[in-house]
Amino acid sequence: MTIEENRSLKIFNTFGLPVQARFFVEVDSLGDMEEVIASSEFKNYPHLILGGGSNVLLLKDFPGLVIKNNIVGIEVLNEKKEEVLLKGLSGTLWHHFVMYAVERGWGGLENLSLVPGSVGASPMQNIGAYGVELKETFVELEALELATGTIRIFTKEECKFGYRESIFKHELKDKYFILSITVRLSKHPKLRTDYGDIARVLVENGVTEPTVKDVSDAVISIRKSKLPDPKEFGNSGSFFKNPEVTREVYEKLAEQYPDMPNYPTTQGMVKIPAAWMIEQCGWKGKRVGNTGSHARQALVLINYGGATGSEIKKLADDIIASVKEKFGITLSMEVNVI
After folding, report:
1. What is the CATH code of the structural domain delimited by 74-226?
2. Domain limits of the chain?
3. Is 164 a catalytic residue?
4. 194 or 154, greater pLDDT
5. pLDDT in tens, 113-142
6. Candidate list 164, 184, 192, 223, residue with the active-site label
7. What pTM value is reported for the model?
């Protein structure tokens, strides 16, 4: 383990922003991480932990220590007739973790196929896609307390999961390094095909009795058709959360916009797709300098090459302002702005 100075972060963030870290280190094990938190660079400077780098917008050079998590591995903890407990180390690519389960026919994660990022980042914002959230299969996680070097187990309840939310984005932000997560998967799952275009794609593929792999393949196909490859155009996937409003607020909006899509959620709330509102405001496919909203998915903001983090943030702020003006709803960002 070597701590470097003045390292470019361009290849470590999916927006491809050419910012630098004052200090930089890659960790491959718990032992490496224990060395890092004992170092003077960690103790005397701010720190930033990077997994896949897909959920950050870096506005400028980072003045402290950037820790790149390369702690990878997947382990079956317990396999029974009906279910499997599967553990993923935090630096493992999320999609690799999902594919490990899909290839074995274990259900629960297939709708989360091709979600960018690492296993360790998944519980931080309770990742979700196509009607499924991580919390539905989540059992527990292991985390290293950065101040003390002790390891703690967090249950699902202790993680305080919400819509793209967890305790690690609020009370415990920057206090723990997630080491692993464990999920419970089913060998006879009830598949979710009623969200988005999954059912349509299955029909197009001639699938009448879908398997876990069929659903995963459909999700991958849909995502690839809508989302640009970060290697071609820098992006972080979905930039904004889908807002939830009360039934009363939704019904008032529906009087003015009868074709507004909506998805009822818990406790009488209604989720309205942010992409639809962004498109109604004229942003979908619009380019502003070296940035823009993607032509096939308005939620995705693009670095066409040469954009700065501040330019992307300005585009996001302008989109938020126009949606607020038109619909009275304030969009929230999924990405962490640093």
Report:
1. 3.30.465.10
2. 4-69, 74-226, 244-337
3. yes
4. 154
5. 999 999 999 999 999 999 899 999 999 999
6. 164
7. 0.91
